[in-house]
Every structure is written in structure tokens, then in C-alpha cells.
Amino acid sequence: MELEKIQQAIRAEKLDGWLFFDHHLRDPLAYRVLGLTPPNIPTRRWYYMIPAEGDPLGMEHRIERGMTAGLPGARIPYSSWTEQVDALRKLTAGMRRVAMQYSPNCAIPYVAMVDAGTVELVRSTGVEVVSSAELIQTFEACWTPPALESHLEAGRRVDRVRAEAFALVRERTRNKAPLRDLEVKNFVRDGFAKAGLITDHGPIVGVNAHASNPHYEPTAEVNSPIAAGDLVLLDMWAKLDQPGAVYYDITWTHFCGVTPPDEMRNVFQVVTGARDAAIERVKSAVSGGHPLCGFEVDDAARAVIERSGFGPYFTHRTGHSIGQEVHGNGANMDNLETHDERRVVPWTCFSIEPGIYLENFGVRSEVNMFVGEREARVTGEIQRELALG
Fold first, then answer.
1. pLDDT of 296
2. Helix (H), strand (E), coil (C) string for 131-147
3. Which residue among 12, 213, 280, 281 has the highest number of C-beta atoms inside a 10 angstrom radius?
């Protein structure tokens, strides 16, 4: 456990401590932040308080001693309900504000791991419980230099597979040869395997109306043909097949022909304009040293789409945190599904992916942005024009 780093983060948030709690492996974040591997599934509650200053202090049930073995500090044993409450008072003694994996109104479900009753119990000792969402970013969302390099290399490989997939679509549709979205999906997965990439599922290959379903994925049971005059949306994400690697996640669109309908071309321009507005919002804030929250990035993209009259057709957040899971635990670019007030902090990465989803087709344009100390950048290729052919 990186005790000094944890305590430094607690002090930076002007908190008195960070209280960890688990029962039946409900909070994977706690185990990852603490670097703790439990000897077995905890069937009794354990607590572990890291103060801003001084030694940590934990508590364990008498029949499950050793559940937090290996972590520094003493342990208070308890068995009864009253002993548990008394021990909690000792853990929180002298403190006013402590963080837990809790989110007011469950605004950020990624960190809402502690049940409401436990939060109420801790509050009954006289302390204020606040969300650990900002603290979690430090330990879950901030990359190392090797992680960044893994992302950049994954991007180069994913972009190659994407170009090859569109070449397949172009060749088949020009020659009026049979092609289905499921075949393109399998082509991408095979390309990932050959390139040393892995993914949890996907990709999304949406044709025409299916492109308006942000989570459509062709299956053996549900799939569609691809022919001249169709729009194809390809959303693909993968990472290097190695420990500690992080994801690269993009979406591009392709029209099977040389002259797309004016409506399709217009929607593409609005979407990419919204994407570019969000990119510029991030770049200007980071280069100027100004604080930036996730919801502000969403506002920048959404404003462009709303001004164009397509507001009701942009039905999801602008972007999500990216890490070792494609949807990471850092700030999301979101003022729709949630009001994400978490700060966009250095050494984090997230997607920018506005979309417009009409009845007969949908367009989404997705890039990844990495934030450094004084500079933010898009980490891969950017689609400037609707792919044709």
C-alpha cells in the first residue's frame, strides 16, 4: 500500500481521513487502492481508516481476524453490534470530514460502492461523510508513462485494423459482393488477435438504423447486410495483451458510395463540430492552467448539437474515462446522465464521442484525449470527412 501517497491525496482534498469498508467483496476499489488481497470472501464487515496524518487503524470481526493482514496499523476486534459502533467511534475520533466510496444521489455510480446504511452508521459517530470520487481518480484513473505508451501503441494498431475493415467494406460493396455486419465484426476481432490486442467485447458495427443504437452489436441471431448506399458506423476498442495496458477507443463512420445524402453529410459535420468544440474546451483549459470539470466538456459539445436543432437526438454523455477497463473510474464528460463535477486531472485519458441518432441512421465521432501537466492532445487519428467508397 502506498500510504504516503494516499495520505498526501487526503490532505490535498482537505479531509481528515479515508475510511474503507467491505463485506462480501462489494468494493473492488478498496482492494485495489489498498493493494489488499483478502485471504477469503469476508462474511463479516471490516473497516480501515487512513488518517490524513499518523498511523492507520482498522477493525475486524473476531471470527475473521486477518482479513486486512499486511496493511499497517493496529486492529480493533469486535463481535457485537455495540462493539462495532464503539470501534467506529475510535476510528473516527477527532475527525470532522472523512471520505468513503459513496456518491451523493448516486451521481457517480462508479464509486458508489458503500451501502446507504453503512454511510448512515458512520455519520452517527458525528463525522461528515463525503465522496471519495476525486481520491479514486488519483489511484484508478491517473496513468503512468508505460500505460500511456501502451495506449499509443494500441492506437496505432487499432487504427490499422479500422482502415483494413473499411477497405473490406469498400471492396465488397463496390463489387456488389455479399457482406454482413457480423462478418465485419469478426474481421475486426481477427485483426485484433493478429495485432496482439485484446478487448472485452465488440466491436459495434451499425448499418443505417442500427447505427442509431449506440450499443448495437451484430450477433449470429441478429445481423444485417451491407450494400451500396448504406452508412456503416464502426466503434472499436482494444488494448495490448500485456499487464497494465490501457484501452484505445474510437468510432468512425463510412458511406458506401461517393455521394452521401445531404442530410447525412450535414449530420456528420454537426457531430464533428461538436467533437472539435469539446476538444478545444479541454485544450484551452489545460494550456491555460484553468480548472476544468467533466460536465463542462459535455456542455461544449452539446451546445453545438443543440444549436443545430439536433439536441433531442444526442442521448448520451459526451465521453467516459479510459483505463485498464474501457470505461474507467475517472471523470466522465457528462452533464446529461449525471452532473460530473470531478476535475479533469493530469495523466488521465477520456473519450470525446458526441453522436446524433436519427430514425434511419446515426453518426458518432469518437477520439481519445490525454491530459498532461500543461497540454492536452488527441492520441490517435481524427476523422475529418465521412469515409467514402
1. 98
2. ECHHHHHHHHHCCCHHH
3. 281
Return the domain boundaries, the chain.
3-140, 142-388
Residue-wise DSSP of 289-358: T---BHHHHHHHHHHHHHHTT-GGG--S-SB-B-SSSSS-SS--B-SSSS----B--TTEEEEE--EEE-
The amino acid occupying position 126 is G
DSSP state letter for 208? G
pLDDT tens, 153-206? 999 999 999 999 999 999 999 999 999 999 999 999 999 999 999 999 999 999
- Specify the pLDDT at position 264: 97
In whole angstroms, what is the distance from residue 179 CA to residue 176 CA? 9
d(CA 379, CA 250): 10
- Which residues, at least 6 apart from 80, have a Cβ–Cβ distance to it below 8 Å? none
Instruction: Find out if CATH 3.30.559.70 is the number for domain 142-388.
Output: no
What is the CB neighbour count within 10 angstroms for residue 340? 28
- Determine the Cα–Cα distance for residues 87 and 272; give it in Å rounded to an integer: 56
